[in-house]
Amino acid sequence: MFKQAHVLFTILMAFLLGISTATNGQTYNYVTDSTFNFTGIKRYTYYNVMDRLFDCKLQPDGRIITVGISKSPVSGAMELPVTRHLADGGFDSTFSGDGTVYINMGNVQSLMGIYPRIAFDNDGKIIIASSRMGAGSMDIFVCRIDTTGNLDPTFNGTGTMVFDVNGNNTEYDLAANLDVDANNNIWIAATTRNGVSSADNDFVVAKIKPDGTLDATFNGNGRKTFTPNTNENYCRSIKVDANGKIVVGGTSGINMYIFRIDTTGALDPTFNTSGSATIQFSNSSDLIAMDFDNNGKIVISGRYAVLGVSLVFARLNPNGQADNTFGFAGKFTINIGNTSTTITGMYIQPDNKIIVGGYTDDSTYANDFIAVRITAAGAIDLTFNGIGYVSKNIVSGPIDEYAYGLAVTPDERLILSGVVTYTSLSNEDAALLKLKPVLVVGLNTLTNPENTMRVYPNPFTNKLDIVSQVDDQMWITDITGKTVHTMQVVTGINHTDLQHLARGIYFLHGNNTSGLKLIKE
């Protein structure tokens, strides 16, 4: 994959449905933001052993809250460091003295699928949902931190609460996400296991009152399990809609699974008539993130196993039916360079464009941070960095870097939080990346007449990106008409190595597209 260091010059015209309302159809490159820690990158440690960042959220004043996991070299146990960063990247000393409060996770000795997540309540307090070791198994862990960086004693007396889903302290309970309703109730999405294998996994929804105790008005004990079928079930996301109903999303077997319940835990029959909806792609898919757009529609993003790992998106109408105005029959799939890309966070812009963040496997440089933007109509948005995505390495060299959190500022700057992994579990650094949009004024991208394909850069040296809206068999000929290269192009971004070609003029052809003139320098 091309690095962001290879400056991406792009064209000012919109591509297919990718016209941006916020930027009037203009194309913006995304570059590191020098107002953030001088370089746009902040890399640091907590205990200098295993230091990872997961989720990140923006406060209204522009300060950034992150949550991570760090391993204490003294006890060997894991802790949750919750940090507040200033908008310029500095640590906020008004928060817990030095910018970070550490939350004990019990005797957890390894991560075991723990991905802590952040939400704000209506008073601006910080709520973290995670998992920690309980009496005999992994349990759901929730804490609330006040705006000064201290655990809030009005929340369950200690600022923390732990509960076992089934009460037997024998099975793993893993928190996946959370949301807060208008009354400051906390809704938790989690997965529990009721047997010996992952085929025994169930979805879990829990409701916690503002005082930090489980709400017995929800299913009698504050928590409820849902079993879509006998396949492996993984709960991933939870959102409270404008009517106070609860929408839950995850993966059931090889498909994405969404359901809506009322505040008592009963399935809502006005949602797809049964209370649930299954989203199927051509291969096994995994729901990662879910949110509402500004029309109340449910936007879903995830991945599926085709050509490595591709990105998939879907949109449902508020009634649970597929939104046929999005992509094809409510779904859209894209591959990034025939490699594996993993979504870990999603943000819906005011114009309903979809930004997802995560990491992508670059065969040359290992995993790097990545962000991708999809139009509100369900197509890759080529006004975003010219090719629809931006990837960035935190440090040079073949070192794995994983982004687990995404936040977007009102002026469309991107913040990605994650980890730089030198040696897994023993030498890792927390990392934040901030990118800013810069209006493109120079062009070196070429689009075909049908507006279904784009190549970058042109002229090129050794490698060429072919961004296509269709699958196609393509070939390159020289000026004599001789075929010098053939390739199968998929919908999405295709990285093409052409270093074997001599300098000169070539022509790109396809079965379903007009040709383009290429120049190799």
Indicate the topology.
Layout: E1 28-32, E2 41-44, E3 51-58, E4 64-71, E5 78-85, E6 100-104, E7 117-120, E8 126-133, E9 138-145, E10 160-163, E11 173-180, E12 186-193, E13 201-208, E14 223-226, E15 233-240, E16 246-252, E17 255-261, E18 276-279, E19 285-292, E20 298-304, E21 310-316, E22 331-336, E23 341-348, E24 354-362, E25 366-374, E26 389-392, E27 400-408, E28 414-423, E29 427-439, E30 446-447, E31 453-456, E32 463-468, E33 472-478, E34 483-489, E35 492-497, E36 504-510, E37 513-520
Parallel strand pairs: 22-35
Antiparallel strand pairs: 1-29, 2-29, 3-4, 4-5, 5-6, 7-8, 8-9, 9-10, 11-12, 12-13, 13-14, 15-16, 16-17, 17-18, 19-20, 20-21, 21-22, 23-24, 24-25, 25-26, 27-28, 28-29, 30-31, 31-32, 32-35, 33-34, 33-36, 36-37
Number of strands: 37
Largest sheet features: 8 strands, mixed
Kindly report the spatial arrangement of strands forming the biggest sheet. Answer: 19-20-21-22-35-32-31-30
Q: How many helix segments?
A: 0
**What is the strand content?**
over 45%
How widely separated are the two ends? 20 Å
* Radius of gyration of CA atoms, rounded to a whole number: 23 Å
Could you list the spans in which at least 5 consecutive residues all have pLDDT below 50?
1-24
The average pLDDT is 88
Q: Structural class of the helices, strands and pairings?
A: mainly beta
Shape category: globular
- By oligomeric state, this entry counts as single chain
